[in-house]
Write a structure and sequence with these properties.
- By secondary structure, the protein is an alpha+beta fold.
- Helix content is about 20%, strand content about 35%.
- Strand 19 and strand 20 form a beta hairpin.
- The radius of gyration is 22 Å and the shape is globular.
- The termini are far apart.
- About 5% of the residues have low confidence.
Length: about 350
């Protein structure tokens, strides 16, 4: 059974909210299971459901869900069955859920016997998804993808960020994106009154774009009064990849002299990139148009020698409100494009 291996991964997904004929459906951001390069949810027809790895659940519950999928906790349903997709409005099994048997087979992990379940016991003959699975995952790949969501390793317990602002769409999406790369993220309206022990969990605090100086000052004051050193990130714009890059840079604890990418500035005429060793550099532009829609442009992908380099930019890619993200292996920088200062 299930002799061939299937790849396993995670990716951000959204169940869009909206107002529907006097009612409403909630907006949910979650991590979907990527099986052989495709979202597993896409194989379940037009199913309105989310995985247990939702970005808006409390951290303790999120962690418990991850550990359950890692088989560190007993199966919540009879027969070794686990919920893989549930109702986006509540946690009631009566609303219906997609469940599967998840078990170990040596070092491997197998998902099999998928079913639509509304009661404690699943009826595979009547409600089984007979065309889906079984899936055999390499244990190492499976565990690596899931354990990356647990907030970092013991060697770096503060690889976690506190996101400050209203629960607008950008912050849950940002939190989900950060978790996929192994960065824990929590959302709060402010930092005032949060116990120092809790603030010490964070290596960075990011304030949502558009926040006023009073809000930013209040966040800084809360950490200072708690005597908790932390990297502060002022969100440049409500663009998730840009904010992720800012957080990644803030969490970089390596000495500046050991970083490959040490400088990034930009104006309407070009970008100045500084590297300390020969390396491949990629440069991406993100631009907000007058309707606040995001436009993404690949600007550069090449090898640079040590030193400072002036890279030409496509004027259309960086007009108006635009931002750059430069990356090398292990380093990332983000900046706003300053217009009217070309040299």
């Amino acid at each position: 059974m299930c002799a061939e291996y299937t790849t396993f991964g995670l990716a951000p997904a959204t169940r869009a909210g909206g107002v529907l004929n006097g009612g409403y459906q909630v907006h949910r951001d979650f991590l979907d299971f990527i099986v052989d390069g495709r979202p597993l949810l896409f194989q379940l027809s037009d199913l309105d459901a989310v995985s247990p790895l939702a970005s808006d659940v409390p951290p303790a519950i999120f962690t418990a869900q991850v550990r359950s999928l890692l088989l560190e906790n007993p199966a919540p349903l009879p027969g070794g069955r686990y919920v893989v997709y549930g109702c986006p409005e509540c946690e009631d099994l009566a609303c219906g859920a997609v469940t599967a048997v998840i078990r170990r087979d040596g070092e491997d992990v197998i998902w099999r016997d998928f079913a639509w379940q509304t009661e404690e016991h699943a009826d595979l003959e009547r409600n089984g998804y007979h065309g889906i699975g079984p899936f055999r995952f390499h244990g190492g790949e499976y565990r690596t993808a899931l354990t990356a969501l647990l907030g970092g390793s013991a060697a770096d317990p503060r690889r976690r960020v506190l996101l400050i602002g209203d629960r607008a769409a950008v912050l849950p999406r940002l939190a989900a994106a950060l978790r996929t790369i192994g960065v824990g993220a929590d959302i709060a309206p402010g930092a005032a009154g949060v116990p120092a022990d809790e603030l010490r969990r964070y290596g960075a605090v990011a304030v949502a774009p558009g926040a006023g100086e009073r809000e930013r000052a209040a966040v800084r004051r809360a950490f200072e009064q708690a005597r908790v050193p932390v990297a502060h990130v002022d969100g440049l714009a409500p663009i998730v990849p840009l904010l992720v890059a800012q957080v990644e840079h803030a969490l970089d604890r390596s000495p500046a002299g050991q970083r490959r990418l040490t400088g990034l500035t930009a104006d309407g005429g070009g970008a100045d990139v500084e590297v300390t060793s020969t390396c491949r550099v990629t440069l991406m532009a993100y631009r907000l148009d007058r309707l606040s829609r995001t436009h993404t442009h690949d600007l550069f992908d090449g090898v640079l020698e040590p030193g400072r380099h002036r890279l030409a930019l496509d004027p259309k890619a960086v007009k108006g409100r635009s931002y750059l993200v430069a990356r090398t292996t292990g380093s990332v920088l983000a900046t706003a494009v300053a217009h009217g200062t070309a040299h």
